[in-house]
Model the fold of this input.
Amino acid sequence: MQTLILNRRTALLGAVSVLGGCGTLNALNAATEPLNTYDLLPVTGSKKGGRTSRTLLIARPQASAALATDRIMIRPDSASIAYLPDARWSDELPLVFQSLLIRSISATDRIAYVGRSDAGPVPDKALLVRMDAFEVNALADDTFEVHVDIELTIINDRDQRVVATRSFSQSQPTPNENVRSVVSSFQAVLNNLIPTLSDWVIQRV
Done:
């Protein structure tokens, strides 16, 4: 797979769209070109502790329209949103993250059943997910960092009572401007974040 190098802040804005005349034609031609696709891997939390016979269904994460896409978001500055050119996630980001949560929590073997909210048995608990950030930030010194900010809410399915809510957030610098390095930095953040949130969820199911 071809490696893609990110441009600096000024070029990032120009890569999003080109308006008018020849620029529009170039943008249409670019839209037909295949994008390099990147995936993220599940991370198993702690397998220590008792196993419960309860069931947990995880709803599709809520996210802004800018995040609810298969493109990799970058903020050239605090007021701007762009997407990395020629790169995409393997699915829409909320679905990618939902799958990561299901596989990661299920792999602990501490809950009898973990699945999507649109399938599976009647759950004992439901997990609501809000994605506030899952992005690359361009910093003032022309370096980059990835930032992930997630809010989880556990509810009783029977009476819809909120059991607990907590936010999880982490940032990490990217070692360079290569897209593969950016994706690797996202994975490194999730390697730390997912076991922590998985344990938090399991303890409250």
In short: The CA atoms of residues 175 and 181 lie 7 Å apart. Strands lie at 36-38, 52-58, 62-63, 71-75, 82-89, 111-116, 125-138, 144-156, 162-173. Residues 179-202 form the longest helix (24 residues). The chain has a mean pLDDT of 85.
